[in-house]
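Worked example 3 (structure in, sequence out).
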């Protein structure tokens, strides 16, 4: 029994590139980045390691892949294949399925939404003193919990859809938001006492833990 199956989820490092083989058939190549973070036990700091993957897309799927742009968040399935040129062996993934994960972008284009998940995050956790995730332990821990979730794609879709449909920039619908009892903005709007926004204890979010 044999099996050759690859599953990857990450962000594109550049726009899709259209190429032509020796038989004048067009195909698409993509560069996908996957990043893994781990905590250094000695320093307590998080260390990131990014790996780049070469993707090749043929046939009807190539028509869809040709529209993908730099920064697109995608999940792919395919098989690992090797080729050799002038004695140098290279690896690539022949893609059989592509799932575009950044659905809120699509909703914004079709339904005139101008929401972003950044605004949602700032309302939920307040504006962070260390806004860059590379230096903020709280955001690092949160991102790891999301990535290591049993269904990370579902969590990602839910977060993006919440930003597009509920936590809108112009008129957030806090009364129907499932996170209203954990959100700094919603609690402050209700005038609840002891919120992180009221006390200034920006780092102390453990009293209202989020369950993924």
């Amino acid at each position: 029994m044999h099996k050759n199956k690859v599953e990857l989820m990450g962000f594109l490092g550049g726009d899709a590139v259209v190429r032509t083989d020796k038989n004048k058939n067009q195909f698409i190549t993509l560069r996908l980045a996957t990043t893994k973070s781990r905590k250094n036990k000695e320093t307590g700091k998080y260390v990131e390691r990014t790996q780049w993957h070469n993707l090749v897309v043929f046939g009807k799927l190539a028509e869809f892949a040709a529209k993908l742009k730099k920064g697109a968040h995608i999940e792919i399935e395919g098989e690992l294949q090797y080729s050799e040129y002038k004695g140098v062996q290279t690896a690539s993934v022949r893609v059989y399925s592509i799932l575009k994960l950044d659905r809120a972008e699509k909703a914004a284009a079709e339904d005139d939404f101008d929401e972003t998940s950044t605004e949602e995050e700032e309302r939920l956790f307040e504006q962070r003193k260390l806004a860059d995730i590379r230096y903020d332990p709280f955001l690092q821990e949160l991102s790891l919990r999301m990535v290591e979730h049993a269904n990370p794609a579902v969590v990602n879709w839910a977060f993006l859809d919440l930003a597009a449909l509920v936590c809108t920039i112009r008129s957030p619908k806090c009364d129907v938001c499932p996170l209203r009892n954990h959100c700094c903005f919603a609690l402050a709007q209700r005038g609840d006492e002891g919120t992180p926004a009221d006390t200034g204890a920006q780092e102390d979010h453990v009293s209202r833990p989020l369950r993924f």
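Notes: The domain at 103-199 is CATH 1.10.1670.10 (Endonuclease Iii, domain 2). The first strand starts at residue 6 and ends at 12.
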